[in-house]
Amino acid sequence: MTVTGVAGRRPRHVPQSELRSGTRYWVASLVSMMRFDYCRVRQWMPMMILIQTMTGAGMALLYGFFYPHVTEMRALYITTGAPTLALIPLGFVMVPGTVADQKLEGTFDYIWSLPSPRSAQAASAFLLYTLIALPGSVLALVVAAWRYDVHLSISPLLVPAVVLCALMATTVGYGMALAISNPVVTNVVANALMFVVLLFSPIVFPASQLPAWLAEVHYVLPFYNMAVVIRAGLTSGVVANVATSFAVLAAWTVAGCAATAWVVGRRR
Amino acid sequence: MTTPEVLPAAVIVPPETVERGLKRWYHDYTVMVRWHLASLRMWLVTMTIVQLLSGVGFVLGISLFFVHIPTSAALFVSTGVPVVNLLIVGMVLGPQLVANQRTNGSYDYLRSMPVTRSVTAAAWYTVCLIGGLPAMVVALAVAKLRYDLPLHVSPMIVPAVLLTSFAGTMLGYALGHAIANPMATRLITQLLVFVVFGFAPVLFPVSQMPRWLGTLNWWLPFRHMAVVTRAALTPGGHAAVISAYIVLAVWTIVCAALAGRALGRRA
Q1: What's the whole-model pTM score?
Q2: Residue B164: inside a domain
Q3: What residues in B contact A67, CB-CB < 8 Å?
Q4: So what's the ipTM on this one?
Q5: Which residues of chain A have a CB within 8 Å of the CB of B57?
Q6: A126 CB burial (10 A radius; 0-12, 13-18, 19+)
């Protein structure tokens, strides 16, 4: 029989005799957290995918208007840049915005109080946003390819490239939003980033058009490398040094996870 | 000396007549402009800096799109950025400010002020003009230095800028006051930014977009704003200026009427 109180009644809060841990428990936590997160974002998920598709495809069309003549090479660059253009707003604006809102609403206080490992909670958010990011970027590519009528040679490399880019954008956006404590600052950073990225990043044009110093900065930042790996999966012989770009993206993903772990791991 | 019984009654007696006339209007107008400038000083300063950076950034950044930027492309962007600067304040940031005021409750307070609708609108227009002009001038100066453009500023710049800003501000005013949901206001204005930057021939010639989109844009104000502003900044004759002024004037009247209606509606 279980422990009984002095008056013969069962106490209401019996602490668990042992802490639950281990891989099985972690995976079970991940699954329930994903269900929890999915139910929370379900109502505005179609909206998010729609906005993302529209911004990605819209920007791909918009860049074309700026050129007097869209040559075959330019069209190829713009089309293969479209998935990157769709991923950046999601990862660097929508995810930080959602995190900032959740901070204001106190959602994190609630989530962190749940009896599941915080690493499983963060992993659930990363996986969910990565999954949400995929349809929009594929749709943006389809629209751009239809508009510019370019010939793409799709290789299996595209799958890891898009998944890694989506994961990188999500983790970095999430980590950034968590690490910056003031939501207003997060919002300003996200919007400024958007402007700088869309105007000064070699996503829809070759990096050789940039001044040398700016190109070197972009070799380290994630945006150019996102465009490189996705372009490598869609074309043959257009880009080089794909392995380096994969490595840079992986490093950024790790950095995003580390920033998240640093904030999430502290007790409050 | 007045007796204590008489004093409270005397204090709350309303004025015998409602004050009207040009002098009163001007007085209310200056007070409202000062009110806005004082209450929005932080917002105005931040916004001007952001506008300066984005305007100059756009003028400089566009050259990265090309191996060698053609003079015509540089000219189009440089003379289009001022239009974007003027529009962003009145049409995008204005409604967003109203949306914020609705959220934090100061909207109802501002509406309770004893001034006429025309004063409210005129004061807001003046503030938007003050917010948009510095970025416009600096972006043009940077463009001139960077690309060595054949700019020629004619006196027509005054009506062009005044009308462009007025149409944009009234459009934003109508949006901000007619749409009650702050979230919807934010979404619509962000969509408008997208349209002005990429889907209206403001920063590039209309010939570079599909024909149907160009035709659609003839019915919208943005293309005409760019035409009148560009005509006042570049030398030579411009064919479509008169029709552009007419279309713009129609839009201005419609938007002002809508804004007036939205302002006058009782909550």
Answers
A1: 0.78
A2: yes
A3: 65-66, 208
A4: 0.75
A5: 195-196, 199-200
A6: buried
